[in-house]
Design goal:
It is built from 4 helices and no strands. The protein is mainly α. The two termini are 85 Å apart. The model has no long low-confidence stretch (mean pLDDT 83).
Length: 121
């Protein structure tokens, strides 16, 4: 089975002369297809890893780690407070709000709630 390339070349030149626009479109599609295959091959190939020479670490002095806290167990369910306020200190710094302050706070909160729920059905 011999392939006659002169006959194939003649057929292509005849087709190119008869329908040049179709031939150009088909040739362009073939070129783009081959170009796409080349790009796909290049992108899918694994990247070349450059090996770098790393010097071995030699410590000048003894390496010291951080000081770890002495922990008896992993979890403490509560904590002990050493300093608590006495009732005398509490009464000195804490004052109960008066009725006017409470009513102002209530009106501000009602306004916020009305703004949020105002558009609700």
């Amino acid at each position: 089975m011999d392939i006659d390339f002169s006959e194939i070349k003649e057929n292509i030149s005849d087709y190119m002369n008869e329908k040049p626009h179709v031939f150009i479109i088909i040739a362009l599609i073939c070129v783009l297809f081959v170009l796409g295959l080349v790009i796909l091959f290049i992108q899918s190939s694994p990247p070349k890893v450059q090996e770098q020479e790393v010097e071995e670490f030699v410590a000048d002095e003894q390496i010291m780690g951080p000081n770890e806290p002495i922990i008896e167990k992993d979890y403490y369910p509560f904590r002990t407070t050493e300093n608590k306020w006495s009732d005398e200190e509490l009464n000195t710094f804490f004052t109960y709000p008066d009725a006017k302050a409470v009513s102002q706070l209530e009106s501000v909160n009602d306004k916020i709630v009305d703004d949020i729920t105002g558009a609700a059905p």
